[in-house]
Structure formats: structure tokens, C-alpha cells
Amino acid sequence: MCGSSVLVLTRWLLVWVCASCACVMALLGGHLSPAWLLGQPKSITAPTVKHLDIQDKLSAWDIDEVMVRPSLGLWLRCGVMGSKNALFLHCGVYATVVPDVPSAQIAAMVLIVCGTALAVFACVLSFFTTCFRAMKGKSLINLIGALQALAGILCLLGLLLLPLSWNSRRVQNLCGPTASEFNLANCTPGWAMFSLLGGSVGLLLCTLLSFKADLSTTTDIIDDQIRRGKNVIFLL
């Protein structure tokens, strides 16, 4: 499985790898969601199934009113569109032209994207630490932990810069004309913002876990089993 190397898996190493994956999923979830800023709820009409026949084929439709919340994310936005009698929620990419995006948001996006890319790279590398624990005399686990710390700091800096763009035209259209820097007016933060915040803080915690994981793979018990010629070592 590891070629000529010894596969070592300990409890703390497993916890660290799983935590790294969870943080990456939280960061990616925040990136791919428009639910960063949530506007006021609006009512739209939507077709719903009234009843089904015996063969489970659609036989009738009802038109019901549903409440939706327009939202704005890093890249995506969801807005209510259409005529007065036929409103619908449309979602799509809006950050396509640089002049249309505030400079503070561009800086935040660059920091968050770089941080997320580093976190993904570190997460992929963490799977190889079961076989390779050193690189040029340095602990690979600790090096990955340093990458995770840098990724977390970059994402947090991006989150701190993002409120400086809340005085933009798009945010004011969603949240009201009184929206300004660090003031959301009629909007509320969405789950995607908290997801990225949690993932960023989690990366810093993963850095601390990496020290524990590294120590767990360099114990006397593991050294003894390696000297006995074992190629697979589990200490759970």
C-alpha cells in the first residue's frame, strides 16, 4: 500500500485528517453558496403537485405562495425576478466583470480563494502522512499544519475585509440604502458566512492537532514495531 514505507495510523492522526477534511468542506460550502447576505423575505408563486394518479403521473397542479429570501454571496446571488404576476427566484454568478465588484470584495475574494486552495492542498497531503512522515528531515505533519495555519489566517483576513464592501450598489439594493461598511441594514448574515468562519477557525485548531498527531506517530511503541518488521501499524 505504501511501497517500501511503513503505514502508520494512530488515533490522533485519524482525528487530524478527518478534521482537515471537515474544514475544507466547510470552506467549499461557503464558496459555492449565495447565502452570505440574506435580504428580507418575499412572496412568490410556485407550482406544486396537487395530486397523483395511480401510476404516479402528475395529474394536476396548484399555484401556491412561498416565501423566499434573496441573497448575495462571494460569486453567486439569488434575486426575485419576473413580472408582478409571475415572480420567481433566479440564482446565478454575478462577479464576472471586475469594475462591477468593489475593490474590498476583490481583495477579500483573493484572500479567501488562496486560503481555500491552500487548505485543499494541505488536506490532500494529509492522506499521505500515513506512509510518509518526513520530508528533507522535517516532519511532514508539522509542515502541513503550518500550511493550514496560513490558510486559516488568509481566510479570516478575507472575512475581515468583506464588510468594507457593504456600501456597494448591489448590497444596498438587497439590504436597503442605509447599508454601509460593517452595517447590513435590513439584511442578516447567512449560514455560508458562518460556514467559512467555522472552517477558518477550524484550520487553526487543525494546526494544534497536527502537533499531537505528529507526536503520536513517533512513539517508542511504533519504533519497536517498525524494528520488528511490521509494514502496517494501527494504534487506535
Automatic annotation (TrEMBL):
Q: List the InterPro entries.
A: LHFPL
- Note whether Magnesium occurs among the keywords: no
Task: Quote the subcellular location field of this record.
Answer: Membrane
Q: Which GO terms describe its cellular component?
A: membrane
Name the major location. membrane
Locate the transmembrane regions by residue number. Answer: 12-32, 106-128, 140-162, 191-211
Q: How does it sit in the membrane?
A: Multi-pass membrane protein
Cross-referenced Gene3D superfamilies: 1.20.140.150
| UniProt keyword Transcription, yes or no | no
Q: Which UniProt keywords apply?
A: Membrane, Transmembrane, Transmembrane helix
Protein name per Swiss-Prot or TrEMBL: Lipoma HMGIC fusion partner-like 2 protein
